[in-house]
Amino acid sequence: MGIRCWRNPLLLLIALVLSAKLGHFQRWEGFQEQPMSKKNMNSTLNFFIQSYNNASNDTYLYRVQKLIRSQMQLTTGVEYIVTVKIGRTKCKRNDTSNSSCPLQSKKLRKSLICESLIYTVPWINYFQLWNNSCLEA
């Protein structure tokens, strides 16, 4: 009777070990480093800077100066953690021609380093800013 009690849990343990050895379980990888190509993340960075400018109380718009670091994780979509340097431009919030705004110079110059968590489902062009934190550069 003592041996019968251990038979089922032992069989379950053997099945789990064999399944793991044979690769039936996928390991959760988490966030992975991505190349620093701004081109590959252009739509995500455009979404980020639009969200930042919409939430900002600054008179002037900001633009991405440099992609410092990017990490991604596949979930039901794609989650990005991006670290970017952004700078204050000479374009005001109500300007309509803000596609190529030059950066501020001298006393109005301001740069920030921002780390953001962005969720996207790229195949349906869906973006959501889940978290953002910026500090002066």
TrEMBL record:
<dbReference type="GO" id="GO:0038003">
    <property type="term" value="P:G protein-coupled opioid receptor signaling pathway"/>
</dbReference>
<dbReference type="InterPro" id="IPR000010">
    <property type="entry name" value="Cystatin_dom"/>
</dbReference>
<keyword id="KW-0732">Signal</keyword>
<protein>
    <submittedName>
        <fullName>Cystatin like 1</fullName>
    </submittedName>
</protein>
<feature type="signal peptide">
    <location>
        <begin position="1"/>
        <end position="25"/>
    </location>
</feature>
<feature type="domain" description="Cystatin">
    <location>
        <begin position="26"/>
        <end position="135"/>
    </location>
</feature>
<dbReference type="InterPro" id="IPR046350">
    <property type="entry name" value="Cystatin_sf"/>
</dbReference>
<dbReference type="InterPro" id="IPR042921">
    <property type="entry name" value="CSTL1"/>
</dbReference>
<dbReference type="GO" id="GO:0019226">
    <property type="term" value="P:transmission of nerve impulse"/>
</dbReference>
<keyword id="KW-1015">Disulfide bond</keyword>
<dbReference type="GO" id="GO:0004869">
    <property type="term" value="F:cysteine-type endopeptidase inhibitor activity"/>
</dbReference>
<dbReference type="Pfam" id="PF00031">
    <property type="entry name" value="Cystatin"/>
</dbReference>
<dbReference type="GO" id="GO:0140448">
    <property type="term" value="P:signaling receptor ligand precursor processing"/>
</dbReference>
<dbReference type="GO" id="GO:0008234">
    <property type="term" value="F:cysteine-type peptidase activity"/>
</dbReference>
<comment type="similarity">
    <text>Belongs to the cystatin family.</text>
</comment>
